[in-house]
Structure formats: structure tokens, C-alpha cells
Amino acid sequence: MKKTKLTRNFTLKIMSVFIGFLIWFIVVNVDNPVSSKSITIAGENVELQNTAYVDSANMMCMQDDDPDPIRVTITGERRLLSRITQTNITLTADLQQAGSLDTDPVMVPITASCPGINPENIKVTPQYLSVRLEEKVTQEFLVNVNYGSSQPGKGYEVGSQTASPEKVKITGPKSLVNKIDKVNATVDVDGRTKDFSEEAELNIIDKNQDSLAGRMAYLTIDNTKVVVTTKFWKIRTGVNIGADYVGVPADGYQVESVTTVPDTVSIAGTDEALETLKQNDNTIWIGGTDIDITGETTDIEKKVSLKDVLPEDVKLTSGTSEDVWVKVSILPIGSHSYGLPSNQVTVDNLADNLLVTFGTDKIEIRVKATAGELDDFNLDEVKASVDLKDMEVGSYQIPVTVKLPKGFELLDDVVADVTISEVSNSDTNNE
Questions:
Q1: Whole-angstrom Cα distance, residue 36 to residue 17?
Q2: Distance of alpha carbon 153 from the chain centroid
Q3: Contacts with 233 (C-beta within 8 Å, 6 or more apart), sequence order
């Protein structure tokens, strides 16, 4: 049988393939040809050297906030290149090698080194590091102590926190130091009720309320840690608010009452302060100098800050508003203010599918005696009603029709806050 062209000299052909593979193997693994490899490194990883070169002139070097990445291209034997990673490469920029320090920015040549690689076989792109020379300044800042989102144990508030030292000095480039808004020292108080002292690391906050942690390499603090002392105060609820006033109303008028909204608050204080408060009827007083009723004929209302009148070593609990509204009710002599129970008010013309709720348990009515004495006034004899014809679901302030016993009259129109809602199934079932 004749051999085909494909099978002719088959052994010779197999040998040729084998020899070709052997030659390739020798070229790749024995001769180890020269190749190139590129590695990209973040620009902030460039080490700036010989900064003392400008320190003597009271200057500092600053890199851009987001420097361009550096591409390092290495030429060498393929086998050697395969083992090189970013960690093997060191990038430096020597200030002494800068062409001039009078330019803005200053361009400093970048040098890359890698073990086992000849420097001339390393190429860096870009070739220069851009830096700015700035005046070095030192500024003093108060340490702002806080406890973040942590919360003390039940029944306690953080009463006071102090830092030692209370101030720190920060040195750095002028533009960066000028950005500093505050220096925070934060400690964890979660679940704690006993006074304690501990070291706290400092966090520098800029005027945008962002941390400058990423720029700390350019800043020097004379005390990187401070000792924070935290003291806990007991909480007391239901502390009364009292208010005084100065002056007298106009002739023919009298002070009916002095009330506050709210009338009680929650506070926290030291044991000694709470005991003193107890001896003063558990009441915080708003001084009369804040409210002057001289010559007045109508009610006086004024918003007062409790923060200004709190006793020493006492504070409002977290979430408690410091604002209090003080109302001095002024009425003509021979008149009086009464609280008419809202359940004494008749509701007329309310649709069957609606329900009305009064905003307060009592509605104020101001009464003057036209014949007889106020002592004879009987609140139970007052007839009052509201007309809710055509009223829909919602909240309203509506007039109250009031009929007083003979010998008495209203000083003012009477209004009530009401909420109208649809009757629910549970309301129907309870009827």
C-alpha cells in the first residue's frame, strides 16, 4: 500500500515538532529574554525626602489632596519581573534635587528603586512630584470632649467632662491649620454610672465638619492623647418650674395667675445639688427681672431660657428643651379665671360617623361679677356648647357658646381646640 503525503516520513515530522518545542523551551526558560512590566502606585505613596531643607526657612511642603498615580515601568528578565509587585518598589522625591524652590508648585523629580533592578531600567511617569511650599504655623485649640452616640446607664446623665490638658498646640502648613474648626476627644460611656478617667485619642475636625485624619502627616500635635475625666449625675424628673415678675398692672387690674409651659422638667445633678433643690421645694425659679408687667392690662407671655437660671451643678436632661413660656394672667379687679371641664361642653350637630376630641381637659373662661360676689359663682351652673354642623375630619379652633348664671358675664370670647375623626369599629362596639 502506498503511503499518503500525510503519513509519509511521520516519524521525522514528530521529531521536528519535538525539536521545535525544545528550542522554544530553551529560549523562554534558559535564555530568559528581556521584557517590560508596568505597575501603578498611588501618588501619596511617594516619600518626600530632605524636608529639613525647607524647615530652616519655617516652611513646609504639602502635596495635592488627590495626587496623580505614578506609573513605574521596569525592564528586565522575564523571570525576575514575574516576582516584582508594588511592595517591592520604593518611590522617593528629594527636595534637594528640585530645580527651584521659587516656583509654585515646586517640581521635585521622582526616583523609583526596586531590588535587583538597575536604576536605568526603571522609568517613572510622571517624572516629577508637584508640591507646595507653605508657611509653617502653630495654633492653640481647646479640646472639645464628648461621648459620641454612647449613653450612660439608666437613671444617669453625663454631668461633666474635662480634658487634661485642656488645650493643645497644632503645628502645620498655614492653609491646613486654618481649616481646623475643633479638636475632639471622644470617650465611650455606654452603660456606665461611675466616674472615670481614661486616655482619649484626638480627632481634628475641619470647618466642613469632616475629619482631617487623612492629612495628619502634615500636622504635629504637642499632645496626641489627653486624659478625659467623666462624671455622672443622677436624673430627677418632675422638677417644678416657678416664675416671678416685677411691677404692678394698671389701676383696676390684678394678677390672676402665673403659669409656665411646660410646668415641670427633667434635670440631672450632683447629689449635693439635688439635695439643695429638694430643700427649695424641688422648684427651679425664673427670676422676676425677666418679666415686667408694669401698667399692663392684658396677659403677658414671654419665652425664657432655663439654661440661664439652672442652679449650679444642675443640667437639663438630654432632649429636654431649655425654652419655657411664662404667662402672667392679668384681669380686671372683681374677675376670675376658671377651668371649665371639656366634658361639660355639649356637642351639637356632629355627624353620626364622626367623633370629636377636645385638645384639653379644661377650657379657660374668664368671668366678671356684675351683681353679687365671685364667691357665689358656681361652675356647675355654666352651660356651654359647640356647633359642629358641616364640620369634616380635621383639627380646628372653634368658638364655644357659654351661658353664665345671672349676675356674671364673660370677659373674653371662649374658644376650644378640637379634633374630629371618623368613628372606628372599636368605638362602635363600645357603644
A1: 30
A2: 21
A3: 156, 157, 158, 159, 160, 268, 269, 270, 273, 313, 315
